[in-house]
């Protein structure tokens, strides 16, 4: 797996939209794609970038893949950002 920089991953507005939607609760690709003016395969590519950055996780339920926010990825982002406020 090639790890994507989390800041690069969140620089895209479509990915930020996906994260905002997932913050409200786990969703499938189809549920996420319904709110964006891009194709389902494009949504899947954006989700892969977020997965590679460890900002989302995925689990399989039958034939469905359910995506959710991965708290551990945001923990690392927060650690890095907090250094600017703790001095």
From TrEMBL:
PROSITE patterns: HTH_ARSR_2. Keywords: DNA-binding, Transcription, Transcription regulation. Residues 1-87 form the HTH arsR-type domain. It holds the Pfam family HTH_5. One of its GO terms (molecular function) is DNA binding. It comes from the Bacteria. InterPro entries: ArsR-like_HTH, HTH_ArsR_DNA-bd_dom, HTH_MetalResp_TranReg, WH-like_DNA-bd_sf, WH_DNA-bd_sf. This is DNA-binding transcriptional ArsR family regulator. The lineage of its organism: Bacteria, Pseudomonadati, Pseudomonadota, Alphaproteobacteria, Hyphomicrobiales.
């Amino acid at each position: 797996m090639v790890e994507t920089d989390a800041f690069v991953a969140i620089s895209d507005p479509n990915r930020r939209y996906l994260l905002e939607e997932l913050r409200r609760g786990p969703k499938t690709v189809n549920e996420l794609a319904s709110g964006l003016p891009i194709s389902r395969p494009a949504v899947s590519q954006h989700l892969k970038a977020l997965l590679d950055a460890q900002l989302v996780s995925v689990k399989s339920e039958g034939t469905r893949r359910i995506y959710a926010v991965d708290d551990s990825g945001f923990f690392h982002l927060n650690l890095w950002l907090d250094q600017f406020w703790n001095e």
